[in-house]
Specification:
The protein is mainly β and 322 residues long. The protein contains 1 helix and 26 strands. Strands 2, 14, 15, 16, 17, 19, 22 and 24 form an 8-stranded antiparallel sheet that branches.
């Protein structure tokens, strides 16, 4: 998925470093995406810009797309990151410039590594009468410096490991490792992403890595995370220093757990690019405009996305400390 903002401000990634557990509720903002989809952008925000290597979180739906085009994100470029497509309802067709074509369905992992350069599109299949509800999340992972120029690639994993704990908790491991269960998705830094399903009456404790920082995104239903009551679409930053996470739910609910070692590198995120210098971003934008480097997405009906103008202010890399 893309950042379709045609006036994107430079994002100075990183945030104030916490050395212990916290409970910071983050406000999202509504952002139009494509022809008919509106998302809740929960990362980056003014208060929190990264969670480990996770640097971008959009939550969308549940939306009835029966009489709409559904998701329509034209071909657009990426460098320096991975995209994670995660659905709770509906279907999304992924195409990219390395020749990948995949239909991603609920609780299946679509993982794209942009590396040095890739282009892709995402759209609801047509007709979509068999999948009329669209609901899910799109996430980005920043690639660390030693790996940010790897060859572009796409992975599709229909089967993912699960962790079934006591107290009504059932977790699907999207990326990384959780309680000994490891996702088959390729990662380049220590992190975890997991979909936690909470049955009615859940009262559980999930083991965590003490040196990771964590956050949870509420996808469906209301839940209580470490004593904080969360409505759907909420992002709660939890900080570091935790060895377990208390989870409760009176009724069925689902949350995404995101975590990882704090990302210490300095970087700049602008539009759909993650780089380290102004010159790198300028080159990527120029290459996309000139039709170089990113390849061609075959099969999408419609024009590709044009790059917005660069901001008048310099793009300066920043670290986690503001």
């Amino acid at each position: 998925m893309s950042n379709l903002d045609q006036r994107p401000a430079p994002t100075l990634c990183g945030a104030a470093r916490h050395t212990g557990p916290v409970r910071e509720l983050q406000e999202g903002r509504r952002v139009p995406l494509g022809e008919s989809t509106v998302v809740r952008r929960l990362l980056p925000t003014l208060g929190r810009r990264m969670i480990g290597a996770w640097c971008f979180v959009d939550h969308y739906g549940p939306d009835d797309i029966t009489d709409t085009p559904g998701m329509r994100v034209p071909p657009h470029p990426h460098i320096g990151l991975q995209t994670v497509s995660w659905l709770h309802a509906g279907e999304v067709v992924h195409r990219d410039s390395v020749g990948s074509l995949a239909t991603i369905r609920p609780r299946e992992l679509g993982l794209m590594t942009s590396g040095r350069a890739i282009a892709h599109s995402e759209e609801s299949p047509r007709p979509h009468r068999d999948a009329p509800i669209l609901h899910g999340a799109q996430l980005w992972v920043a690639l660390p410096d030693p790996h940010r120029h790897v060859a572009p690639a796409f992975e599709y994993h229909a089967e993912l490991p699960r962790v079934t704990g006591g107290g009504g908790l059932d977790a699907t491991v999207i990326l990384g490792t959780l309680d000994g269960a490891a996702s088959p998705g390729t990662t380049y830094s220590p992190l975890v992403g997991a979909d936690l399903t909470l049955a009615a009456g859940t009262d559980a404790r999930l083991p965590l890595e003490e040196d990771f920082e964590y956050a949870v995104l509420t996808i469906e239903g209301e839940s209580e995370v470490d004593g904080v009551r969360l409505a759907p679409g909420s992002l709660l930053y939890l900080g570091e220093g935790r060895t377990e996470l208390p989870l409760r739910a009176d009724d069925p609910a689902s949350v995404l757990l995101l975590g990882g070692l704090p990302f210490e590198e300095q970087l700049v995120m602008w539009w759909n690019f993650i780089g380290r210098t102004q010159e790198e971003i300028e080159t990527a934008r120029r290459d996309w405009a000139d039709g170089q480097r990113f390849g061609t997405v075959e099969g999408y009906e419609g024009p590709r996305l044009s790059a917005p103008p660069l901001p008048p202010t310099p793009l300066k890399p920043r670290g986690r400390t503001r």
